[in-house]
Amino acid sequence: MGKDIQYQLIRSRRKTIGIQVKDGMVTVRAPLRTSAQEIEAFVERSRSWIEKHLRLQEEMKKRQEETGMKKLTRQELEALAQEAVRRIPERVAYYAPKVGVTYGNITIRNQRSRWGSCSAKGNLNFNCLLCLAPPGAMDAVVVHELCHRLEMNHSKRFYEEVLRVYPNYYKDHAWLKEHGRELLDRLP
Ligand SMILES: [Zn+2]
User: Fold this and answer.
1) How far away, in angstroms, is 151 Cα from ligand 1 center?
2) Is the pTM of this model over 0.70?
3) Rounded to the nearest whole angstrom, what is the distance from the C-alpha of residue 150 to the centroid of ligand 1?
4) Contacts of 170 (CB under 8 A, 6+ apart)
5) Residue-averaged pLDDT of the chain
6) Where along the chain do the CATH 3.30.2010.10 domains lie?
7) What is the number of alpha carbons within 13 Å of residue 68 lying toward its C-beta?
8) Most confident of 54-58, 127-131, 181-185
9) Rounded to the nearest whole angstrom, what is the distance from the C-alpha of residue 162 to the centroid of ligand 1?
10) Cβ–Cβ under 8 Å, residues 112 and 151
11) How far away, in angstroms, is 155 Cα from ligand 1 center?
12) To pair with 8 at 20 to 30 A between CA atoms, which of 18, 39, 62, 131?
């Protein structure tokens, strides 16, 4: 036998013993009257299953920390800002004639709240974290903000214009809806 498996025991009006492994924690759910020995024996019989899932979750956590999820360092953020300064104005210059609008200054920021914005004077702001999103997501935000030069609202007309210029808008923007929070959370 290996070392004891640590677990949280929750008793309730259920009929069978159940085990859950989540976030590296083991939870055992047992009926009110099941004896401690029975529970111990059940956990012991499930040992290889529990250990396998603990190991998989540990590996997944490590992978997430190594890749996507960890906080950006100041250097990484500076590199990202430089990349954004190089890439985003190029996309704006590409799409502006397609929308048929002019624009003012382009400012790159790192902000927790938004991906882009457009002022009444036509100055554009973009979040440098867009460089960590798929290219289509960046384009979707660029077209969105440029279309605000025509419509300073999110009306039906506004979205018709967005879709005319960028038919894939909803699909590409959906990526940000789904994963955007993870990106924003990477700001230190
Ligand atoms: Zn908008």
Assistant:
1) 9
2) no
3) 11
4) 163
5) 92
6) 74-184
7) 12
8) 127-131
9) 10
10) no
11) 10
12) 62
Instruction: Report how far ligand 1's centroid is from the alpha carbon of 88 (Å).
Output: 17
pLDDT band at 185, cuts 50/70/90? Answer: confident
What is the band of 145 on the pLDDT scale with cuts at 50, 70, 90? very high
Structure tokens at 101: 């609008």
pLDDT of residue 46: 95
Query: Is residue 49 within a helix (H) or strand (E), and if so which, with residue range?
Result: helix 47-66
Q: Is the pLDDT of residue 68 over 70?
A: no
CATH for 74-184 is 3.30.2010.10
Residues 6+ apart with CB under 8 A from 111: 127, 187
CA of 185 to the centre of ligand 1 (A): 21
What b/e readout covers 137-156, taking b as 16+ CB neighbours within 10 angstroms?
bbbbbbbbbbbbbeeeeeee
pLDDT band with cut points at 50, 70 and 90 for residue 162? very high
Distance in Å, CA 144 to ligand 1 centroid: 6
Ligand 1 centre from 116 Cα, in Å? Answer: 8
How would residue 181 be classed by pLDDT, with cut points 50, 70 and 90? confident
